[in-house]
Predict the structure.
Amino acid sequence: MFPLNHKENQEKICIFAPIYPAYDWLLPILIECVDYFWPDHPQMRFAGLENSDVVLNDSGNVNWAALVRAGLQRIKVEGFTLAYLITEEHIPVRPCHVSHLNETLPRLMRQLSAVYISLMGWDNRRYSSRSPILGKEFFRLKHLSGFRDPRFHLHPALWQIHVLERCCEIALEDQSKNGSAWHFEKSNDKATANLPNKWKQQCYQLCAAEMRREPLTRTETFLRHLERISYLKLMALYPLIPSRKLADSYFRLIGFDRVVCDGPYPMVFSGVFTKGKINPILEKGLSTTQFGREIYTRLLEETLSRARRIPSGSS
């Protein structure tokens, strides 16, 4: 088992990782990466698996939102009120800023009465939201108050557990959608979602540059800003391309999703996999440490091994 003692805050916090059965082999890698890159992390809890030597919450053969909801109901009994939701695909790829994750962000949740703080920095090149940015005393968090802001998305984030549970229930209302992770996001970030309005106004996204382990130099700050502006302008052209095939080719060429995001929890924007293959940008993310390079090699070897075991013509 891998639960580690965590410094007590006012709330009881855990890392909650729903593991989809098809990706259960990623569980040891996720645990090893969290242990290595996030020492003294909160206790870890999982949902979706039956056989393991770690603490699990068995949800049976159900869809994604039901799997998550069942796990949340179990961890609430243990007294957890806050959870870092981290799916198996979003492993940390570099050393985390432990004090920000263990202390600063939970404190900001209290100070702002927040229900959700995304760990995916708004200042990476993938986001274009123009919502208000708080002051330096709040580490320049972005208040996700705009109509199209990425509220309640499934990139790693700190959640109020009861809010995450309600979002799962909304994703399960339309049985035809099968409670998929994609449907979870689409049904909950709508302005019309059946959530209390105050929750919709209590969502934030951190500024990665303010919470990374190593401060940026002035030159790095300028280049980061220039890259973001350039990519946002290129991204604005994407919906104008009339051919879907050409649009997809343009998307791949520019590499909108090939982003290593820093901040207190460094990660790859689109996760371990893209289109069923190891994400090519993952190697860059994991290349800064010997441990990371070994993890990348294991991922390649395991993916290749599994591909060989799939019969020809299987989906």
About this structure: DSSP finds eleven helices and twelve strands in the chain. Residues 48 and 61 are 8 Å apart (CA to CA). Residues 13-279 form a domain with the Spore Coat Polysaccharide Biosynthesis Protein SpsA; Chain A fold (CATH 3.90.550).
